[in-house]
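SUBJECT: protein chain
CONTENTS: sequence, structure tokens:
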Amino acid sequence: MNWKGVFPAVTTKFHADGSLDMDLFFKNLDFQLESGVHGIILGGTLGESSVLSQEEKITLTRETVNYINGKVPVILNIA
């Protein structure tokens, strides 16, 4: 993988009840892609990686990879 370019640590979006808001999250991904990013980092150093459940991390990763569909690399923070 080429680490050159812009790889934003995107924020995870939630509904008021604490569940993942994938519709709003996908809108953010669309904006990032339209802006020309070179990759996406999930659960970056914004604290999300430590508060998301394992199931939420799997869902977020799976849905993002499917949505991005190979346009740019998708990286999950493991810190």
